[in-house]
Specification:
0% strand; single chain; mainly alpha; 16 helices; 80% helix
Length: 328
């Protein structure tokens, strides 16, 4: 297309840089904490170099991740994760290339991905003629050698929680119950966290790298994220189920309540993060110190950020920042 042709003529967009984007996405996948940012280089490859070269970069990454998975880790988890990263990178790039609203695109893509994965995993487990818990127990039993190695390491550890961990590892059925209860909520959070962070980085990078091209959206829209007020009622239902779910005769109600809280909580986190970002702007925090504060808050006080996003529905915290600015 016209935009891609113009971008392809950019003197800085060499083949070496394209390969670097592909390799960096695999390197990010191999890392643990930084793997959440793995779709970013791929999405950038699609946007800067066009869909064709973006696909080739992703395919090269799939081959590289498969080689690492087989030769180094003897486990296909890395390859499966990179396949998801490839899908995320392509999806984010398409949202940007088509000029779709970042928030609408992110929510639609995220929910669609979760639905497809749920149907796919559910169909596979059903084809095995087992329940979800039975399937997890089977996988744990297949990994008994690795679990035995982990138990030896934990036994040598001085961690005060090591006894509880050992007891859990000795009870595959309990692990399966815990995973069945907690996985849906954490999977939902993981999908939207990855989408939000990578969408933010892509929009910011696109604005900086392609400033000459008109584009109707920016990363600021993600910082102005606002959850519709009607969802407060659903959150109240989730809280009630989490607190009193067992009284209704089944622990499943309690698990459902916690899942609702987690799923809505990630969106309130986005809203609260936007407020927190504006607060940092207001008090003039920038540079490395700002990055350090943001990382500390994300990892240690994320519940407070989500709470700020929730209460922002009533207090509209940003208006206080504007009021103080005008007073000065």
């Amino acid at each position: 297309t016209g935009m891609n042709a113009e971008v392809m003529q950019h003197p800085q967009l060499s083949t070496g840089r394209l390969l670097l984007l592909g390799v960096s996405s695999v390197v990010l996948c191999i890392s643990f904490i930084m793997s959440v940012f793995a779709p970013f280089p791929l999405a950038l490859a699609f946007i800067l170099y066009g869909r064709g070269k973006g696909f080739l970069t992703g395919l090269a990454g799939l081959v590289l991740s498969f080689a690492f998975a087989v030769l180094v880790y003897q486990d296909y988890t890395l390859f499966g994760f990179y396949a998801g990263v490839f899908i995320f990178g392509f999806g984010i790039a398409e949202i940007v290339l088509r000029g779709i609203s970042p928030i609408k695109g992110m929510v639609a893509f995220g929910l669609g991905f979760i639905l497809l994965m749920s149907v796919g995993i559910g169909s596979f487990i059903k084809s095995q003629n087992v329940t979800v818990e039975q399937f997890i127990v089977q996988q744990i039993e297949k990994s008994s050698d690795k679990i035995a190695e982990q138990k030896k390491l934990i036994e040598q550890s001085a961690d005060k929680d090591s006894i509880q961990v050992l007891q859990l590892l000795d009870n595959p059925k309990l692990i399966a119950q815990e995973m069945t209860a907690s996985f849906p909520g954490y999977f939902f959070i993981g999908v939207f966290l990855m989408l939000w962070f990578n969408m933010f980085l892509v929009l910011k990078s696109r604005r900086l790298l392609l400033s000459g091209n008109d584009y109707p959206h920016s990363e600021r829209e993600l910082l102005n994220f606002k959850v519709p007020f009607a969802f407060v009622g659903l959150l109240a239902v989730g809280l009630a189920l989490a607190v009193w779910g067992k009284d209704f005769g089944s622990v499943g109600y309690e698990n459902l309540g916690f899942t609702i809280i987690k799923c809505l909580g990630i969106f309130y986190f986005f809203q609260g993060f936007g407020v927190f970002s504006d607060l940092l702007n207001f008090i003039g925090v920038s540079g490395f110190f700002r990055t350090l504060i943001v990382m500390l808050v994300i990892f240690s006080a994320n519940y407070l950020i989500a709470a700020a996003g929730l209460f922002d529905n009533w207090f509209d915290f940003r208006k206080y920042f504007i009021k103080r600015k005008t007073e000065d």
